[in-house]
C-alpha cells in the first residue's frame, strides 16, 4: 500500500478481503491494491487531537491535520494562554516526507485553500454539539 491511509480504511479492506460487503455505516475505503474499481484518487485525510474536548462537546482547541496529496496542512487553534490563537504549517510530502520545510508563506494559495477546507470540516463535525 503506497497511498496515505487511515485506521478507518482497515474495516472496509478486511471486509472486501473476506468476501463480505462493506457496511453502509463504515467510514473509510477499500485500499487501492484490493479494490479494482479504485480510481487512483486519494481522498482527503483528517486527523484531530483535542485533549480538552469532551465527547459531547464542540472542538474549540486542538491540533488538526488535513492531507490532500501531496500536501499536508497542520492547523493549531484555541490556545490563547500559550499565545497561539491559530497557526498553520504546510508541507509537500512528495518532496519533503520528514516535514522539514514549512511552505505556508511560500504557498499561501494552497495554505488558504486547505485551511478553508479544514475549518469547514471542523464546523461540520461541531454542528451536532452546538
How does this structure look, described?
This protein is α+β, with helices and mostly antiparallel strands. The chain is built from two helices and four strands. It has helices at residues 10-17, 108-126; strands spanning 45-49, 62-68, 71-79, 84-92. The chain has a four-stranded antiparallel sheet with strand order 1-2-3-4, covered by helices on one side. A hairpin with a 4-residue loop joins strand 3 and strand 4 (84-92). The radius of gyration is 17 Å and the shape is globular.
Quick overview of this protein structure:
This protein is 21% helix and 23% strand.
Question: What does the secondary structure layout of this molecule look like, with pairings?
Answer:
Layout: H1 10-17, E1 45-49, E2 62-68, E3 71-79, E4 84-92, H2 108-126
Through-space gap between termini: 38 Å
Class derived from helix and strand content: alpha+beta
Radius of gyration, taken over Cα atoms and rounded to an integer in Å: 17 Å
Total helical segments: 2
Q: Strand-residue fraction?
A: 15-25%
Defining key terms:
single chain; 130 residues; alpha+beta; four-stranded antiparallel sheet; 4 strands; 21% helix
Amino acid at each position: 500500500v503506497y497511498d496515505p491511509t487511515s485506521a478507518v480504511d482497515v474495516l472496509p479492506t478486511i471486509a472486501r478481503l473476506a468476501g463480505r460487503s462493506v457496511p453502509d455505516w463504515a467510514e473509510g475505503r477499500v485500499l487501492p491494491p484490493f479494490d479494482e474499481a479504485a480510481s487512483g484518487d486519494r481522498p482527503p485525510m483528517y486527523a484531530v487531537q483535542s485533549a480538552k474536548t469532551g465527547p459531547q462537546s464542540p472542538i474549540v482547541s486542538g491540533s488538526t491535520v488535513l492531507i490532500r496529496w501531496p500536501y499536508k496542512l497542520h492547523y493549531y487553534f484555541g490556545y490563547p494562554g500559550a499565545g497561539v490563537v491559530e497557526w498553520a504549517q504546510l508541507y509537500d510530502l512528495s518532496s519533503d516526507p520528514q516535514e522539514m520545510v514549512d511552505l505556508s508563506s511560500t504557498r499561501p494559495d494552497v495554505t488558504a485553500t486547505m485551511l478553508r477546507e479544514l475549518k469547514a470540516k471542523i464546523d461540520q463535525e461541531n454542528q451536532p454539539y452546538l
